Q: What sequence folds into this?
C-alpha cells in the first residue's frame, strides 16, 4: 500500500474519448477519426433509441421528473431491488463525487491502477488518499488476502470491476463475500464495464450494508453525452444520500433514453457480448504478435498493452493520430509508466485499420 506519490491530471484532458476536441485540433471531421481511446460499445447506438428520443423531443419543454422516479422503479424491477435502493444520476460521475462527500470515512483506499476521478473525488471530500497497488508481475490480479491486511476500518475502498484500464474481472461472488466479511469498511464498486462480460452484477446478490454500487449507461449503450447512471445501496444508506441530492439532476432526454433502454435493450447487450467473444481473441493475438508489444490479460471491451523499452505511449499516440486513430496513453494512471497504452475494440473494419496502422508504426525504422 502506498500513499499518493504523483498527481493525475484532473478535469479536462484526464480521460480518453475527447473526440470533438481532437477533431478540432487536427482540423478534421469527427467522422474522420477512429476513437479507440474511449471504452464504448463497438456496435454503435442501440437500434430504435434515436427514434424514441425524436418522438418525445417536445418533452424538453417540461421539467424532468424531480428524482427520476420512473427510471428508479424500472431499474429496481429489472434487478430485483426496492426503488428506495436506487438513485438515478447525471452519469455515474455524480455519485463518484457524492459518495465520498456523504460518508464519515477518514480515508480512501483506491485499488490501482484505475480511473483517476476516484482519487480526485476523495480529495475534494477531504479524505486522506492511499493507494493499494496491483502488481504488474501478477498481471494486475487482485489479491484479497493482501487487500484485507490493508483495511483498518472507517475507510472507503474503491474497486472498478472490470477494472479500467487493466480489463481484469473479479468474480462477483468472491467480491461480495469479501465485502460482507469486512463490515467496518465501506466499498464503492464501479460496474461500468460489467455488462460487456458474462459475470453477474453485485445487484443480483443480497445487498451488503457497506456497499455502494455504480451502474453506467454510457459505456454499454454508447450514450456518454446523455449522462445517465445509477447508484445502488442498502436502504438505510440510501436515505442519507437521497436527502442531500438536488432536484432535477437528470435531464428529460436522458430519462426518456433510460426508459427505452431498460425495457428494450437486452438483446442488444447480448449481441455486444457475443461480438466481443468472437472478435477479442483474434484481435489480442494479432496485437500480441506486433513487435515490442506486451498484452495484459483481461476480459473487457478494452485491452491494456505495454511497449518495449525505447518507445513511449505518448510517442505511439502521436504517431497514430497522424493516421486519424485515437488510442489512450495510460502514463497518467497511478501504478503505470509511460509505456502503457489502451485500445478499445470497435467494428471489424476499424479494428483491422488500427492493427495495420500499429504494425506500420512499430516496424518503421
A:
Amino acid at each position: 500500500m502506498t500513499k499518493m506519490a504523483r498527481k493525475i491530471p484532473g478535469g479536462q484532458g484526464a480521460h480518453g474519448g475527447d473526440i470533438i476536441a481532437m477533431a478540432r485540433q487536427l482540423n478534421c471531421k469527427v467522422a474522420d477519426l477512429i476513437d479507440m481511446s474511449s471504452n464504448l460499445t463497438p456496435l454503435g447506438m442501440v437500434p430504435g433509441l434515436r427514434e424514441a428520443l425524436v418522438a418525445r423531443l417536445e418533452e424538453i419543454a417540461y421539467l424532468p421528473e424531480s428524482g427520476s422516479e420512473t427510471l428508479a422503479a424500472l431499474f429496481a424491477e429489472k434487478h430485483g431491488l426496492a426503488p428506495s435502493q436506487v438513485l438515478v444520476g447525471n452519469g455515474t460521475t455524480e455519485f463518484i463525487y457524492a459518495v465520498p462527500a456523504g460518508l464519515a470515512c477518514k480515508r480512501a483506499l483506491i485499488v490501482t491502477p484505475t480511473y483517476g476521478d476516484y482519487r480526485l473525488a476523495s480529495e475534494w471530500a477531504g479524505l486522506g488518499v492511499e493507494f493499494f497497488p496491483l502488481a504488474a508481475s501478477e498481471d494486475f490480479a487482485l489479491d484479497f488476502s493482501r487487500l484485507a491486511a490493508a483495511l483498518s476500518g472507517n475507510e472507503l475502498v474503491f474497486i472498478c470491476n472490470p477494472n479500467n484500464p487493466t480489463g481484469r474481472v473479479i468474480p462477483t461472488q468472491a467480491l461480495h463475500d469479501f465485502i460482507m466479511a469486512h463490515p467496518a469498511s465501506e466499498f464503492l464498486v464501479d460496474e461500468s464495464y460489467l455488462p460487456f462480460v458474462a459475470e453477474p452484477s453485485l445487484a443480483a446478490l443480497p445487498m451488503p450494508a457497506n456497499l455502494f454500487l455504480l451502474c453506467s449507461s454510457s459505456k454499454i449503450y454508447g450514450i456518454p453525452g446523455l449522462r445517465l447512471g445509477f447508484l445502488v445501496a442498502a436502504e438505510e444508506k440510501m436515505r442519507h444520500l437521497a436527502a442531500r441530492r438536488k432536484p432535477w439532476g437528470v435531464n428529460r432526454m436522458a430519462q426518456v433514453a433510460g426508459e427505452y433502454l431498460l425495457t428494450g435493450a437486452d438483446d442488444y447487450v447480448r449481441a455486444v457480448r457475443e461480438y466481443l467473444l468472437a472478435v477479442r481473441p483474434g484481435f489480442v493475438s494479432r496485437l500480441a504478435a506486433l513487435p515490442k508489444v506486451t498484452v495484459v490479460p483481461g476480459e473487457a471491451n478494452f485491452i491494456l498493452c505495454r511497449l518495449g523499452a525505447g518507445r513511449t505511449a505518448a510517442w505511439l499516440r502521436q504517431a497514430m493520430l497522424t493516421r486519424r486513430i485515437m488510442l489512450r496513453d495510460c502514463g497518467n494512471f497511478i501504478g503505470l509508466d509511460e509505456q502503457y497504452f489502451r485500445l478499445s475494440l470497435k467494428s471489424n473494419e476499424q479494428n483491422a485499420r488500427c492493427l495495420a496502422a500499429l504494425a506500420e508504426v512499430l516496424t518503421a525504422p
Observations:
- The first helix runs from residue 19 to 26.
- The chain has 13 helices and 14 strands.
- The radius of gyration is 20 Å.
- The first strand starts at residue 2 and ends at 3.
